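Continued from yesterday's entry.
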Amino acid sequence: MSMHSSPTTPGGGGGSHVADPQTPARQTATGSGSGDFSGDNRSQNSAREVFVDYVNRLRGGDMGSLPALLGLAVLFVVFGLAHDRFLTTYNLTNLVIQAGSICVLAMGLVFVLLLGEIDLSAGVAGGASATITALVIIDHGWAWWAAVLAGIAVGAVIGLSIGMLVAILGIPSFVVTLAFFLALQAVPLRLIGSGGSLRFNQEVLRGLSVKNVPVTAGWVAAGVLVVGYAALLLLRYRSRVAKGLGHRPLSLVGLQIVAFTAIVLGLTTLLSQNRAVNPDVFNISGIPWVAPVVIALLLFWTFVLQRTRFGRHLYAVGGNAEAARRAGINVTRIKVAAFVICSGMAAVSGILAASYTGKVSPGSGGGNELLYAVGAAVIGGTSLFGGRGRAVDAVIGGLVIATIPNGLGLLDQASYINFIVTGTVLLLAASVDAISRRRRSAAGV
């Protein structure tokens, strides 16, 4: 079911305005973090001007991921004070591994949510894809990479089918994906059998959750990441200055680089420590392999959303599909592509989940995975109404979602408390989204 409000014509007060096919995301891309072109000719010459501009955007309802970041900080403080093991390197590593599959699934759902649509089948699509991956390894002896490609291909076909039914036939996404949610549960049940399971113990795939990047390689990767980020910001600053476009002061660019460097090197230092219970006997150190996978996907999809024509068109269609169509955008193709990406990412998420549990069963993907992933995207700042969201929202929200059961588990709380707290956090996030949207509308954004 599409979650758009009623369409408005270009230039109307309630919708997005698409000026031309080359810059269709002029105002809908504000949710992308850096896609708002309205400030291209407005330089911010001091940190004070940047701060004032940020405060004004907050007042206008553009809160982005700030509520999720504040919520994550509160959770860390509360659980850290409540239990002395929460902030240990061992538990924080477990938290990263637990959040991996949720973050990946949520990243895929961001593409569908940006259109104001929904995909209820993403969780079970991941389970069906992981089942195919496990079967071709166990029964046919495929190489792990070929099996992964087969699983992702299954997810892409599922997404293509959903996208065509939604975009071409015009069936509401709620109905289509609900039907796929029911039907896809039959795939692992038929292939595995009731009560059975497939061991997911291929060395490389299982190692995503149980093995770590060598410490030296982790430091090299961290250095490359820091240098690459610094070069990107400085090149962008130089380019905007040379073209006479609006730009932030160099001091603030330097501050961003310093902050990013501190975070990356700090986390690398933390995860490079020996976190074994008996450090004199065992050595468990290094970044879990699942983390580089999530980071690579985050960087790739962030580039797609913010630096490609497809990304700009996606935001435009999500902001106002009719205005985007009149501007010459192929709305049908954009919608189909979004569902293909979502189900493809669901396949990757299903493989990561199977890597964590060590098996694939008939119930894989059919539990709360989808609900947690949707909650992660919304908590991170992606709007349910379309047109606003980023890939990083899914990662931030996924960390929030994973932190709740992790912390409550250490406190030995009953399982029903986990559901209540998670539901409350999601409701608060949806309320913030609705209030922010109302404030943006009142401000004429």
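--- second protein ---
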Amino acid sequence: MASFVGVTKCPVGIAHTYMAAEKLQKAGEAKGYTVKVETQGAQGNENELTDADIKDADFVVLAIDVAIEGMNRFIGKKVLLASTANAIKDSDKLIIDAQKAKVYTGEKKSAEKQEEQTEENDEHKQSPIVQQLLNGVSHMIPFVVVGGLFIALATTFGAHPTSAGMVIAPHTVWNAMNQIGTIGFTLMIPILAGYIAYAISGRAALAPAMISAMVANTPAILGTKAGTGFIGAIVVGFAAGYLVKWFNSWKIPQSIRPVMPIFVIPLLGTGIITAGFILILGAPIAWLMTSLESLLNFLSKDPSTSIVLGLVLGAMVAVDMGGAINKVAFLFGVASITAGHPQIMGAVACAIAVPPLSVGLATFIRRDLNTEEEKTAGIAAILMGLIGITEGAIPFATANPKHVFPSIIIGSAVASAVGMIFGITDAVPHGGPIVGVLGATNNIGLFFVAILCGIAVSTAMLAFFKIRKDNKEKAKVKAA
């Protein structure tokens, strides 16, 4: 009896991995095939293929969005590379194409031919760079969710507003929860960088990427006023990954090869990348931060430029969500409180919650266009947004920067500008609906209106982009 085997794997390893496997299974059985599909999901490899399964198979379908290990087991078999999205949308076509697939030899040229064939059969296949980025994002998401929710709960039930910000009493369970949440956010940065690098060149890249990402976010080492945020972590991840990949291409004696991944590569990689950030990138970052502060000081001196100032502050809040640029806007708002201008902090407070609330609410528009992991992350983002944690939008922004960044930047800018128009003030260095509920603003009603204006703009843009993308994909499917 005819048979084929397959492997499915998506970046997060939850919904698409199993949906693609189910579609392949049903489509194959409907055509009279005996089918076995291995799923490489968040819970590990399930329904693993045996040597006998592969030997008896007529061909292999790999519906994968990120690289998988164990490709050599398919040498000598017809192998079709595709994405999980294509397996979900049209498994029948993949099965037909797999029957005509080229035999996989394991050689580089063979792999290149397979990639060319994949491009012909899968117009929506993600580039390697996107796959590597999503690998980092998928490992980072649990840290963002846990960290954000712990901080949110601690702030909601244990904090009270003061002139120094939202304060949680020490030696309480809420203080402990807040510290645990902070640890989650701290670990988010090295995890993102580490697993981008891991997707490029394997385990040896983890130490250089994770350590360097922490250095890139430690102002005391960089000699700057702020770290580089998650954007710096992404740069570090790719730099470490490709640097280690280059190290691995070196032709070295066999006697030295065993110590390369545990000693030489981590030492060299960490040294080179951290030196690059400290010696080369430190000064430009410091200059950028100083320039931004000067711009904000200039705009704040003239009341006629208050709307422009609001637009600039709001955009800065969203552009890197808790990173260096965000911190400049936030610290400028904090300084304005002590200088007797709390309306600047008010504008910042209006913008802070827009990114997470917008991406979260957008998942409730056309729910069928959102994956299960997006829906789950959306709820967490909303909860974080209510407490003024901008980082809740990071998983969405890193996974789909082309659509998310313009949406949240424009929405945050609108919220901040409207806050300036309304003359919203904020007496504490914090943002989001929580500061209004706790009485830190001068007009809670107008404060919420400003936030809602920004959310409406961002959410509408996000929904528009998602629906347009879906319509384009449907049109391509019909044309094919």
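The radius of gyration is 25 Å. The chain is about 65% helix and 10% strand. Will compare against the first tomorrow.
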